[in-house]
Design brief:
heterodimer; A: mainly beta; four-stranded antiparallel β-sheet; 12 strands; about 0% helix; B: mainly beta; seven-stranded mixed β-sheet; 11 strands; about 50% strand; globular
């Protein structure tokens, strides 16, 4: 069935380190792909998206490229900040089912 | 555009009581979704509406759960005879059909604690 697999957390980095959070998905067709971020006690905020192969989504220094051949959408940031500490969710939007599918998320902690 | 609004943000109830959550989507968004999220897990799909029509319901939505969107604007999610296992955050989201990438915007969530 349709699913998403993210890098297991928690991930702990020092400030200004390079970040990669891996995401691969299984879905029929070509879903739109999203990254959401969730801060403690809050809902999900859209971070970035890509709607077709080779598209690159970017926002707030984060980037992710839609790789159809590897069914991946890895999240990257060149220099993380303490304020980036949160849980990150990769989610394909299934066109047929008309919904987002989430994995367990990756908890990121940035130490000063 | 004030975003997706949910009420109440927090609810503590005794087991067996009924609770109702309200969601006001982004204006003119015709799709509205409900998800449930337990601690340490990702959100799980419960149901979604297109205008006033409820088009899909997850198996997670037992017969104690009912969702409505009577006029195609706000929605309510009612849980009857609550159980401790219902403790979770209930997330509402909305989108505009046909919008680029079908971007779904989430509210801040409604926390339910059943004691």
């Amino acid at each position: 069935g349709d699913s998403v697999t993210q890098m297991e957390g928690p991930v702990t980095l020092s400030e200004e380190a390079f970040l990669t959070i891996n995401c691969t998905y299984t879905a029929t067709g070509y879903p739109s792909l999203f990254w959401y971020v969730q801060y403690p006690g809050e809902g999900l905020q859209l971070l970035l998206k890509a709607t077709k192969a080779d598209d690159k989504g970017s926002n707030k220094g984060f980037e992710a490229t839609y790789r159809k051949e590897t069914t991946s959408f890895h999240l990257e940031k060149g220099s993380v900040q303490v304020s980036d500490s949160a849980v990150y969710f990769c989610a394909p939007y299934l066109q047929g089912a008309q919904k987002l599918v989430f994995g367990q998320g990756t908890r990121l902690t940035i130490n000063p | 555009d004030t975003g997706v609004s949910q009420d109440p943000r927090h609810k503590i109830t005794k087991r067996g009581q009924n609770v109702t959550f309200r969601c006001d989507p982004i204006s003119e968004h015709n799709r509205l979704y409900w998800y449930r999220q337990t601690l340490g897990q990702g959100p799980e799909f419960l149901t979604y509406f297109q205008n006033e029509a409820q088009l899909e319901k997850s198996r997670l939505l037992s017969d104690r759960f009912s969702a409505e969107r009577p006029k195609g604007s706000f929605s309510t999610l009612e849980i009857q005879r609550t159980e401790q296992g219902d403790s979770a955050m209930y997330l509402c989201a909305s989108s505009s059909q046909g919008a680029a990438g079908n971007t779904i915007y989430f509210g801040e969530g409604s926390w339910l604690t059943v004691v």
